[in-house]
């Protein structure tokens, strides 16, 4: 077994852990917003699903990065370190995105307004994962 494979696995694994945590956070907020709407006999917007699922994209970035690391011919310690640190960074981005999405669920569920603003801010936290992916590609 090549030690670099551990780094590649960590890129996917840590990204997916963050996605799971972030999606869990945002999903709980979506469910709470729907509950409040149902209790008030107001329509419950399906758009909250977009907020709840936003952190899942970081798993895709982890998978893409894993593939890149597995095909890299760079030093195995660089690949190991890049996979671990980049996977953690992408996963943390997913957690932050889940927290932002939870706030978006609360605000949109209450007002029914501001969807474009909320999704834009959620996209800003996505940028951390994209930058991590791109910058790791440039060195590994």
Structure commentary:
The chain has 140 residues and is mainly alpha-helical. 84% of the residues lie in helices and 0% in strands. It has 5 helices and no strands. Helix 1 packs parallel to helix 4, helix 3 runs parallel beside helix 5 and helix 4 packs antiparallel against helix 5. The longest helix has 37 residues. The relative contact order is 0.22. The model has no long low-confidence stretch (mean pLDDT 96).
Question: TL;DR of this structure?
Answer:
By secondary structure, the protein is an all-alpha fold.
Q: Based on helices, strands and strand pairing, what is the structural class?
A: mainly alpha
Number of strands: 0
* Average pLDDT: 96
Q: Give start-end ranges of low-pLDDT stretches.
A: none
- How far apart lie the N and C ends? 19 Å
Our Rg estimate from Cα atoms comes to 17 Å
Major sheet details: none
Helix content: over 70%
Overall shape: it is: elongated
Give the ordered list of helices and strands.
HHHHH
Helix count, per DSSP?
5
Fraction in beta strands? under 5%
């Amino acid at each position: 077994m090549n030690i670099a494979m551990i780094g590649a696995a960590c890129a996917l694994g840590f990204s997916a852990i963050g996605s799971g945590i972030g999606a869990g956070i945002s999903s709980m907020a979506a469910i709470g917003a729907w509950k409040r709407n149902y209790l008030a006999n107001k329509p419950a917007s399906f758009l909250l699903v977009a907020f709840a699922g936003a952190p899942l994209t970081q798993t895709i970035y982890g998978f893409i990065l894993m593939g890149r690391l597995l095909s890299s011919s760079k030093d195995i310690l660089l690949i190991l370190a890049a996979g671990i640190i980049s996977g953690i960074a992408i996963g943390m981005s997913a957690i932050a995105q889940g927290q932002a999405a939870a706030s978006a669920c609360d605000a949109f569920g209450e007002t029914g307004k501001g969807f474009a603003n909320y999704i834009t801010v959620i996209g800003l936290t996505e940028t951390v994962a994209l930058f991590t992916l791109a910058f790791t590609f440039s060195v590994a």
